[in-house]
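sorry for the late reply, my laptop died twice this morning and i had to redo everyting from scratch. anyway the thing you sent over, i finally got around to it. pasting the sequence first so we're on the same page, its 60 residues, then the predicted structure underneath. double check i copied it right bc i was rushing
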Amino acid sequence: MAKLHVTLTHSAAHRLPKQRKIVKALGLGRVNSQVELPDNEATRGALFKIAHLVKVEQVK
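ok and here's the structure:
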């Protein structure tokens, strides 16, 4: 299964509470924090909601 490398590029402060919860649930804390996540529909859906806050790269 493919993986996604996700980096938080903008702060989640002053965002909608739902967006802050998604950032926390994905394991991202501070700006520039990084995490590897599985590439599945649930992860893609969560990333779509916070696409303006993160940078996503596919790991081969």
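Residues 17-25 form the longest helix (9 residues).
thats about all i looked at so far, will dig more tmrw
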